[in-house]
Amino acid sequence: MKRLLALALAALVLSGCAVSTTTSVPTVPAQVPTPGGAATAAAGAPPAAEQCPDLLASPRPLTPMPAPGQMPAGSTMAKIAQRGKLVVGVDQNTLNMGFRDPFSGQIQGFDIDMARAVAQALFGNPDAIQLRALTSDQRIPALQHGDVDMVVRTMTITCDRRQQVTFSSEYYEAQQRILVKKNSGISGPDQLAGKRVCATKGSTSLATLQALPQKPVTVSVADWTDCLVLLQQGQLDAVSTDDVILAGMAAQDRYTEVVGASLAAEPYGIALPKGDVEMARFVNGVLDRVRASGTWAASYQHWLFGLLPGPVPAPPAPQYQD
Ligand code: GLU
């Protein structure tokens, strides 16, 4: 017993010595910060996805298109013209789609070019625009409350959303994929069982993750950049959303990569207040011009070429309802 006590004392003295002679800073348990409102959920039964046959069909463009400054009396376009600015809900966190340039302070990107084309058609001036930064789950409420005239923010056309807003024709087709740290060992959706995977609240990405048979643990946040920071901090195994959003993250962090097959096609539309068919016809006329004039290809070339694999694609062909 005495010997044991002596040994224990010796060990204590030794360990005490080790601490007192070391020059390293004592380690304090790091507090792991999480973005406000972040929530974790185990995958549960997803709500049954609604089906609609003509998902991408949108009102036919106005013919002829009114010239800038000559909007039909009583139309939404005339009201916006009278106000002097088009108010658009956008993203400010997604590199090259809708992001704030740190040097100029301006929000720019592919989505912003689409929004500016509508301002150009209304006013003859692409700068007659006010951009309001929205998170994924603020998009539909902002339209419903009349805070914005339209939303151009990596927004997928879905059946559920079509109950709440009116969509333009499709102007971009993304694919949901996965972003991981390089050498993570995760190469696709099959490896996501029990893994912590991030997506924003109110996004189709989150709903798709929660419906996966592999049952990842989903972490939901406000902005896509919150997901990237959590991944960098080691609080996640993966981020999953549209390839075009993930490509922007991978460009900001060369220790990350996009992997695996598509989890879902994500056709983007410009969202308008529900039932405003005339405005939808006007916006579709603008998008037709954007596709035909080479503006679409020039914008892709400027923002997305090189970020995404492959050459500049053709814009998606619009589908119209009769
Ligand atoms: N396209 C998906 C959506 O509309 C994800 C992108 C996002 O939320 O920003 O929900």
Question: Could you characterize what this model shows?
Answer:
With 322 residues, the chain is an alpha/beta fold. It folds into two domains: 57-173 and 267-320, Periplasmic binding protein-like II (D-Maltodextrin-Binding Protein, domain 2); 175-265, 3-Layer(aba) Sandwich (D-Maltodextrin-Binding Protein, domain 2). The chain is built from ten helices and 14 strands. The protein has helices at 2-21, 76-83, 110-123, 139-144, 159-162, 204-210, 224-232, 243-252, 277-292, 295-303, and strands at residues 39-42, 57-59, 86-90, 93-94, 98-100, 107-108, 129-133, 150-151, 165-181, 196-200, 217-221, 238-242, 256-273, 319-321. A six-stranded mixed β-sheet has the order 1-11-10-12-9-13, with helices on both faces. Strands 7-3-8 form a three-stranded parallel β-sheet. A three-stranded antiparallel β-sheet has the order 4-5-6. Helix 3 crosses helix 9 (277-292). The structure holds glutamic acid (GLU). Glutamic acid binds at residues 136, 154-156, 200, 203-205, 241-242, 266.
Task: Kindly report the spatial arrangement of strands forming the biggest sheet.
Answer: 1-11-10-12-9-13
Q: Could you say what the CATH topology of the largest domain is called? A: D-Maltodextrin-Binding Protein, domain 2
Q: Any idea what the shape is?
A: globular
Give the SSE order as H and E letters.
HEEHEEEEHEHEHEEHEHEHEHHE
> What proportion strand?
15-25%
**Number of DSSP E strands:** 14
Compute the gyration radius: what is it? 25 Å
Instruction: Tell me the helix content.
Output: 25-40%
* Average of pLDDT: 90
Name of the top-level CATH class of the largest domain: Alpha Beta
Quickly count the domains. Answer: 2
Ligands in the structure? Answer: glutamic acid
The name of the CATH superfamily of the largest domain reads Periplasmic binding protein-like II
